[in-house]
Amino acid sequence: MSDDVDGAYDNTHRAFLQALLSRQVITFNEAKPLLAAIQTANEPERPTLQEDISHEDFDNYVYTLNSAISPFDFEIRSTLHQTTKQKIYALVNTTSDALTQMATVHSADEITFVKRVLDAMFDTNNTQRAEVMAISSMQALKLAKDANRRESGNTQAQNAGLTMSQAEKVLQSMVDEGWFELSTQGFYTLTPRALLELRGWLMDTYNDQPAEDDEDEEEVHEKIKFCQACKEIVTQGERCPKLACLARLHAHCVRSMFRAQGNREECPVCKTAWVDAPPVGEKAARNARRSTGGTGGRRSNRMRRDAAADEDSDASGGGGE
Ligand SMILES: [Zn+2]
Ligand SMILES: [Zn+2]
After folding, report:
1. C-alpha of residue 8 to centroid of ligand 2, in Å
2. What spacing in Å lies between the alpha carbon of 241 and ligand 2's midpoint?
3. Of 141, 195, 183, 171, whose CA–CA distance to 283 is shortest?
4. In what order do the strands lie in the sheet with 248-249?
5. Which of 9, 164, 227, 321 has the least C-beta neighbours within 10 A?
6. How far is the CA of 237 from the centre of ligand 1 (A)?
7. Which residues surround ligand 1, an ion (CB under 5 A)?
8. Residue 25 has what pLDDT?
């Protein structure tokens, strides 16, 4: 069966590419019925069942499509979802980053809001104490207005960002367009596809170039960190129990990492025992909330102030619909 799809780009590839363009990501199991239907439509006298589609057939489609679309700066890349561990295949633009693509369908104010949300995910909510790398929908909505402008006066609201309902719509469209996903606990995170497309942008934006002879560990703290096992970005997973250490692992990569180092359950970088490894991801937000005192106090005071300020503006805003 794979003989006649190997190499040659035909109508079935075109149809599969169209399906990918409209959905952006696909799993092998989702592709099976799709490819069966496409092949059956192509050859009605020889119907294909979804059980007939092997992983090799699917790989052949991906391979053939990749050579066809690479001149247009697209590539189908695969990655594992960090929590469901599902292998997903995403249609990735290899030259422009996700923010550039969003700008083709969103206004400048909307993109600026999305950038504030990303700053909150990867900067504000991503400290050495708590690597949340996610944002609650409450906190995201509070970024509808540019906080700096808001303090200097409410009169020019149209220049100061979005209304609450506009922000809500943008967040929803980020989910619909496949950039954000919303957890059951109400946290927005970047999807695997967004991480594939934003990898370079995230590193450029949030990782300081470490200065030579810099003694201050907080200063060289890299905001975007990679799994020691699979080398992909970790926004949900585990971190080395030694807080200053930059080693991160996906939950599904921990066991293979230990196996690779002869069953030694220790950090691959600093050799600290990998016991009670703190979480990376929204679980880190819950842990941070539970712990009181320390350096977290200053931050929570500020958040309380922000929340109070927002209640004020909500009351005066009158819905904004
Ligand atoms: Zn990994
Ligand atoms: Zn370590």
Report:
1. 48
2. 7
3. 183
4. 248-249, 237-239, 279-280
5. 321
6. 8
7. 227, 229-230, 250, 253
8. 92
Give the distance (Å) from ligand 1 centre to CA of residue 251: 7
Ligand with the closest atom to the CA of 81? 1
**Which residues have C-beta within 8 Å of that of residue 211, sequence separation ≥ 6?**
219, 220
Q: What is the pLDDT of residues 3-50, one digit of tens each?
A: 444 458 999 999 999 999 888 899 999 999 999 999 999 999 999 999
Output the CA 128–ligand 2 centroid distance in Å: 13
pLDDT tens-place string over residues 169-195: 999 999 998 899 999 999 999 999 999
- The residue extents of the domains of the chain are 2-72, 101-173+285-316
Give me the half-sphere count of Cα atoms (radius 13 Å) on the Cβ side of residue 112. 11
| Ligand lying nearest the CA atom of residue 268 | 2
- Kindly give the distance from the C-alpha atom of residue 249 to the centroid of ligand 1, in angstroms, as a whole number: 5
Alpha-helical runs (H) found in the chain: 11-23, 28-42, 55-69, 98-102, 108-119, 137-141, 147-151, 164-176, 192-206, 217-220, 254-260, 282-290, 296-317
- For residues 111 and 16, give the distance between their C-alpha atoms in angstroms, rounded to a whole number: 31
75-113 residue pLDDT tens = 999 999 999 999 999 999 888 888 888 888 999 999 999
